[in-house]
Design brief:
4-stranded antiparallel β-sheet, about 30% helix, 5-stranded mixed barrel, 13 strands, alpha+beta
């Protein structure tokens, strides 16, 4: 076995240690989720708060998904191009961005405004477009790309191959929110008939929004902790074994 095995072992050890280190972050996030009781909108206190409810649009504060033009309250978009690397072709990320709107989270007791900027958003729903093979891109997507200096025709008229993905939150989605409840700067004191509208939930120590059901949120983050610590240890041990095997010690 060549020296490549030793260097591969080193890479595996580094990957294992990084995963183990990431496990500490996931553990801290899991503790925040586990230790924060779920509140109702009407009875929530200022500071860190955990809520579960339905997204309701905030007038004139919606945004639109850049490729499909759907009305939403938050969207992450990614542009990838298929590029050649020697004999291989791979999708390479060339641009990405986030569009933040404002929305209300409503439960059976009331509603509160949420500003999703800088949130860690866990959302499974997405739309994907590509002009690979016989695929085509929506007209709105073409305009979006050209507005950012990305033309679908390359040198000598050759076509460039893109994959466009948008992840989004829409009115009517049920979401879990862990954030910080603060005075709402968008509402003047005394002008709101509903007390919770004087509050906004936004970023803080840990700002997390998920479309997973409440029970699944806890299970998902517990699994991430196990993956971080357990996977990190296993990868590190496997890398050390490969290194020792190359050196003839085992």
């Amino acid at each position: 076995m060549g020296v490549e095995v030793f260097y591969f072992g080193v890479a595996v050890v580094i990957g294992g240690l990084l995963l183990f280190y990431r496990g500490f972050r996931w553990f801290r996030e899991n503790q925040l989720i586990h230790n924060t009781p779920t509140s109702k909108v009407r009875s929530m206190a200022m500071g860190r708060v955990e809520l579960y409810g339905t997204i309701e649009s905030c007038p004139k504060k919606e945004v639109k998904t850049p490729f499909s033009g759907l009305p939403c309250v938050w969207c992450k978009w990614v542009v990838e191009e298929r590029r050649s690397y020697g004999d291989d072709k791979k999708w390479t990320k060339v641009k990405e961005g986030v569009l933040n709107g404002l929305f209300y989270l409503r439960d059976e007791t009331g509603k509160v405004m949420v500003y999703p900027k800088n949130a860690d958003v866990d959302v499974p729903q997405f739309r994907e477009y590509s002009n690979r093979m016989f695929g085509s891109l929506p007209q709105g997507a073409l305009s979006f790309l050209e507005g950012r200096g990305l033309k679908t025709s390359g040198l000598f008229g050759s076509d460039r191959t893109f994959r466009l993905t948008e992840y989004f939150l829409m009115p009517g989605d049920e979401v879990y929110v862990l954030g910080t409840a603060r005075d709402n700067p968008l509402v003047e004191d005394g002008t709101s008939d509903i007390n919770e509208e004087d509050i906004i939930v936004c970023g803080g120590e840990f700002f997390y929004i998920s479309r997973r059901p409440l029970k699944d949120v806890h299970e998902y983050h517990a699994a991430k902790v196990i993956t971080g610590f357990g996977g990190g240890i296993l990868l590190t041990l496997a890398g050390v074994y490969l290194m020792l095997y190359y050196l003839g010690i085992v």
